[in-house]
Design a protein that fits this description.
The protein is α/β, with parallel strands linked by helices. Helix content is 26%, strand content 20%. The N and C termini lie far apart (69 Å).
């Protein structure tokens, strides 16, 4: 391993290179800043950015660099969102679990991978720590790997390891990871969490996301037994359940006894917990998000969120109208795998209204909104007003069930729209109240 300065390390990058930048809360900020400093020397450098939480806007996202760095986002993260909204970069629609295949088959060639890794262990292996997800396939395919050797990065097991001999250059840093504070659920979120927890049986395998509603669900599961964890993103919210033995992974069929994730984001407490924790494995996202692997676990409970839902059950989760604000991520992967699992259930959990008071349940999706989860795959939609069970229901019945959990202020309007659309087949269902 050749330890050097950040400037010397990124000097290995040439014009026309395709660069993968590690994501989650482990963006290699020191290397990225040094790369941006070389903007005047480079041209036509493609940047693949993944799901990530940055401290600030990416330093390569400046108008004067628009001919140097061409951003092809695989998930619209906070540090590049404005850049894409202004039309300087683009996003590639893809299920997160399928992106490794795009690297591996050359559809998205990778020349350079920039990593943020732990110090090496006794055998010379560094860990990718909190971000195996797309980093594993990107490193596999990259001709050149440049890394920050970061004292602040936890050492995690699984797929996310690299021997120092594979590094073309390395920079030693002590750069704290971005922390994502655990969100305290609101009363609305607690009500949603309680509805979902009531439908989760003992022995279930959890896939759960980030934010107030997932934390509310986890808090409501403390009385459960023998839960398992096979998820895309691991957060602080699962730690109390692991520490109390509620999550023991004893009934999983895929890696029983092990907590499984592809990335992690949370507080320093989570990162400290992960360090050299052998019962936790971080895996390539193509592995964790494979629906046919997910289905092998019993009673998979896939819990995800959305921007809006229409009266047929179509779910928009990545855009506000035409503006892409995130990505498909693993929602589809786990909704499909969970639906196939023996005893599995899938949930879209949303407050009934936005912070501005606009209904999240709409007669039609907003113009330009994309469908992340189709109406054919949705099982349960949950708001603070209850659970709409859509599986096996016709369109009129779905509309009735969704109106019943919409905010009371919009139900009459939604009923008029449903009556126009479905006629007598909707009207005969009557009104609950």
């Amino acid at each position: 391993m050749h330890c050097t300065t950040a400037a010397e390390a990124v000097a290995l990058i040439r014009s026309h290179s395709r660069i993968y930048i590690q994501g989650s809360t482990s963006i290699p900020e020191v290397l990225v800043a040094a790369l941006a400093d070389r903007a005047a020397e480079l041209t036509d450098v493609t940047v693949y950015s993944a799901f990530a939480v940055g401290r600030a806007e990416a330093p390569y996202c400046r108008p004067e660099f628009r001919e140097t760095f061409l951003v092809n986002s695989l998930f619209v993260a906070n540090n590049i969102r404005s850049w894409l909204a202004d039309g300087y970069g683009q996003t590639i629609p893809a299920f997160l679990g399928e992106i490794p295949g795009l690297f591996r088959d050359g559809t998205l060639p990778v020349d350079v991978a920039l990593l943020n890794v732990s110090p090496p262990d006794a055998e010379g292996y560094c860990s990718f720590g909190v971000s195996a997800d797309l980093a594993v396939p990107a490193v596999e395919c990259a001709r050149t790997v440049i890394a920050q050797i970061n004292r602040a990065m936890p050492y995690s097991y699984g797929d996310a390891r690299i021997h120092v001999s594979r590094l073309a250059a390395a920079v030693e840093v002590d750069d704290p990871l971005v922390e994502v504070p655990s969100v305290v659920p609101s009363e609305t979120e607690r009500r949603i969490g309680n509805y979902i927890a009531e439908l989760i049986p003992d022995g279930a395998t959890l896939q759960i996301g980030v934010g107030g509603i997932p934390n509310a669900v986890l808090a409501a599961l403390e009385g459960h037994k023998h839960l398992g964890l096979h998820t895309e993103a691991m957060t602080d919210g699962v730690l109390p359940l692991i520490e109390k033995g509620v999550i023991d992974n004893s009934q999983k069929r895929v890696l029983p006894g092990m907590n499984v994730a592809s990335l992690a984001l949370g507080s320093r407490r989570l990162y400290d917990y992960m360090d050299y924790r052998k019962e936790l494995v971080m895996k390539d996202v193509a592995w964790t998000n494979d629906p046919f692997r997910i289905r092998q676990n019993p009673k998979v409970m896939a819990i995800n969120s959305a921007v809006e839902v229409d009266l047929t059950g179509q779910v928009c989760a990545d855009s506000v109208g035409t503006r892409i604000i995130s990505g498909v991520g693993g929602q589809h992967d786990f909704m499909y795998g969970g639906a196939l699992s023996e005893g599995g259930k899938t949930f879209i959990a949303i407050p009934s209204t936005t912070p501005r008071g606009e209904s999240k349940i709409r007669a039609l999706l907003a113009p330009g909104a994309g469908v992340v989860t189709t109406r054919h795959m949705v099982q349960h939609i949950v708001t603070e007003y209850g659970v709409a069970q859509l599986r096996g229901r016709n369109l009129a019945e779905r509309a009735r069930a969704l109106i019943d959990i919409a905010h009371p202020s919009v139900r009459e309007e939604l009923e008029r729209e449903a009556a126009k659309r479905y006629g007598y087949s909707f009207l005969r269902l009557g009104t609950r109240s």
